[in-house]
Amino acid sequence: MAWLAMPCPVLLPSAVMTPPALFFVHVMKTAGTSLFWAMRNAVGVDYVRPRPSESPTAYFDIEELQQYDRERLAGARLVAGHFPCYLADEMPMPIEVATVLRHPVERTVSMLKQHRKEQADAATSLEEIYEIPEVFDSLIHNHQVKMFALTQGDGVANYMAPLTIDEARMDIARERLGSVHHLGLNEDLDAFFDRLCIRFGWTEKLPSMRVSAEAVPIDPGFRQRIERDNEADMAFFRYGSEIVRARADC
Question: How far apart are CA 225 and CA 34, in angstroms?
């Protein structure tokens, strides 16, 4: 099926029209943590849902978000977390959706480096971590497309549930990504955040909160393996990049 990017959305500056709340689909290892803290500071912590301080799993537990009191959700200016995109449709107030994608190889390497740092096991190679089923299946394998291909009918507890990506799932993911109001790429994060600031009237600066900044040489063969294993993510990233380029021409 041939896919076309959604027409450029008409997004008026906040000085012209009060914007709706923002639903941020935080895909792991795309610099989403830096974005979240900047967004949180911009809207004020009292207007963020869910509040991570309320539960250690609040930032990614789907059921916790679904059980949130509708009145409390309706008062939010930012709903953010490691939540699949379909949850945006369940919000009780007008929203715009934002997310950032990253080249799958770079995202995977960053994920592996973070895992090694957290485990304090410098002797373990990135390739060895990559082969750990719990890491690969939950956090790496076509992870970005999964965040947009999951549906309510899947009944998963959180973003770590494995999902087989077939063409039907790709169709779901592409359609959802095309409807995202604010789509950015990790490689151009500052420009993406600048556009959010214009839209929502924010004055925040984007902090850098990199947790895996160590420089590690990656064998070309390993990079090719990541691309082969995550073919759906590669195609999804290319599609997202096309959307970003098309909108830049608006």
Answer: 29
CA distance 233 to 174: 11
Q: What is the mean pLDDT of the chain?
A: 90
Dihedral in degrees, nearest 10, Cα atoms 14, 76, 46, 43: -20
Return the beta strands (E) in 66-147 as ranges.
Answer: 78-81, 95-101
Q: Which of 159, 150, 126, 154 is nearest to 225 (CA)?
A: 126
Q: What is the Cα–Cα distance from 224 to 96, expressed in whole angstroms?
A: 36
| Residue that the structure tokens 């610099």 belong to | 31
| DSSP code at position 142 | T
Cα(195)–Cα(87) distance, rounded to whole angstroms?
A: 24
**SS (HEC) of 167-185:** HHHHHHHHHHHHCCCEEEE
Instruction: Tokens 């990049």: give the residue.
Output: 241
Write down how long the chain is: 250
**Chain segment 206-217, per-residue pLDDT in tens:** 887 555 556 678
